[in-house]
Structures are given as structure tokens and as C-alpha cells.
Amino acid sequence: MFPINRRGLILGAAGLVAATAARRPAYAQAPAGPHSLPPLPYAPNANERAIDAMTMEIHHARHHGAQVAGLNAALAGQDQLSAMALDDLLMRLSQAPENIRTALRNNGGGHANHSMFWEIMGGQGGEPTGDLKAAIDRDLGGMEKFRTDFNAAGMRVFGSGWVFVTVTPAGSLAITTKPGQDTPLMDGQRVLMGNDVWEHAYYLRYQNRRADYLAAWWNVLNWERLAARYEAARNGTLRI
């Protein structure tokens, strides 16, 4: 049943999400541990051209916050793993005890993916310049083909997952997808950028219209931050 307001009106799907969110605890204050929820680098309404403020708030504080809490809980008593940087932990999942490996994979992957996701948005879209543009032209066939192929890859993700662009130390780019909260870091690769195609990332505005969300997302990319990530990948300082 959908929730009903004081006037007895059915609030609908958006009201259901909002009412449910209001009843949940805020996960922004994660249990004590080595990892913390990074603040959004902009106001929740900064990405309105693609993502509404309520979705940003719920996605960041509750979904990402819960993953940080889950990651810290899984690392409790694991001093060696707790001392690792997040990317090192994800690249060495096979060394983790089997009984916590799934929790580390899901929550650690989600923490890395979302931290990257917030960082690369908050911009005005458009196109890159300089070395990043040259790499896109060389490896991905130019911006138009890149957008088309990236969105198509996002549409092929069955259920929940991510579409990424990986980057090598030599600056080569490639499009890939991962299920759930998996990340290319788990394969020893670095991530330039990625889009979250879990329904919680877009459902309030787009419902099941993932294609519309994927198309609109380009309008809020911050190409200056993406260029900085590209340079960091090439000089060995890119982390998540």
C-alpha cells in the first residue's frame, strides 16, 4: 500500500520512497572504523539537470552511508586489512578471510564506486579538452561514439550494476561493466569514471527509463575533475 497523507491522498511511488526514507536511521554517522562517508562536494540540488536533490540525498546518506557502515563492521578486529587503503583492500580481496570477503566486496566496492561517482559530477557537462580529449578520440572513437557506446553498455547491465571507463598508467581508456557493487579495482584496473545504474540512482525521476537517465547524466559531468583523474592515473597517484 502507498502511504496516505493527512488529507487522505495517496502519495504514490515518490511518496513511498520519501516516507520510507524519513523512517530510516541516518547512516551518515557510520560505526567507528577506518572508513568514513565523504561529504558531497556540492549541494544536493547541484545535479538537477540529471538527478533530483531527494535522490542525491537518499543515495548519498543512506545507500552509500550504509555501505561505509557495513565495510567498517566487516573490518572490525581485522587490523591488517583495516590499515589498507581502500583501493589496496579491493585489489587484494583474495587475501581477506573467506567469511568476510563478500561483505568487503559489496560494501568496499560500493564505497569506492560511490566516492568516485560524487567526485566526477557537479559540473556543466560539455566535452573534455587536452590530453583526455585526445585519449577519448584515440581509444573510444571520439565523444559522440563514446557517449553512444557507454550508454549502450549501461543499458546492457542486467539488474543492478555500473558502467565504467578504465584507464591504464599509459593513459589508455576502455569501457567495461560490472554487476552489483563490483569495481575494476578488483581486477587490478584503475577507474577514470563510472555511472551507477542501480535503480536507486534514478528511479524517483525516471522510474524504469534508464536510457533517459543515462542520456541526461552527461549534462552534470565535471570534466575538470575527470581531467585531473586522468592525469593522476598516468602519474600513479589515482586512488579510487
TrEMBL record:
InterPro entries: Mn/Fe_SOD, Mn/Fe_SOD_BS, Mn/Fe_SOD_C, Mn/Fe_SOD_N, Mn/Fe_SOD_N_sf, SOD_C_sf, TAT_signal
Keyword check for Oxidoreductase: yes
Residue ranges constituting the Manganese/iron superoxide dismutase C-terminal domain according to the UniProt record: 128-228
Superkingdom of origin organism: Bacteria
Catalytic activity: 2 superoxide + 2 H(+) = H2O2 + O2
EC top class, as a word: oxidoreductase
Pfam families cross-referenced by the UniProt entry: Sod_Fe_C, Sod_Fe_N
Keyword tags: Metal-binding, Oxidoreductase, Signal
Signal sequence segment: 1-28
SUPFAM superfamilies tied to this protein: Fe,Mn superoxide dismutase (SOD), C-terminal domain, Fe,Mn superoxide dismutase (SOD), N-terminal domain
PROSITE patterns: SOD_MN, TAT
Residue ranges of every copy of the Manganese/iron superoxide dismutase N-terminal domain listed in the record: 35-121
EC numbers, comma separated: 1.15.1.1
Family: Belongs to the iron/manganese superoxide dismutase family.
Role noted for this protein: Destroys radicals which are normally produced within the cells and which are toxic to biological systems.
Protein name (record): Superoxide dismutase
Organism annotation: Roseomonas nitratireducens
Lineage: Bacteria, Pseudomonadati, Pseudomonadota, Alphaproteobacteria, Acetobacterales
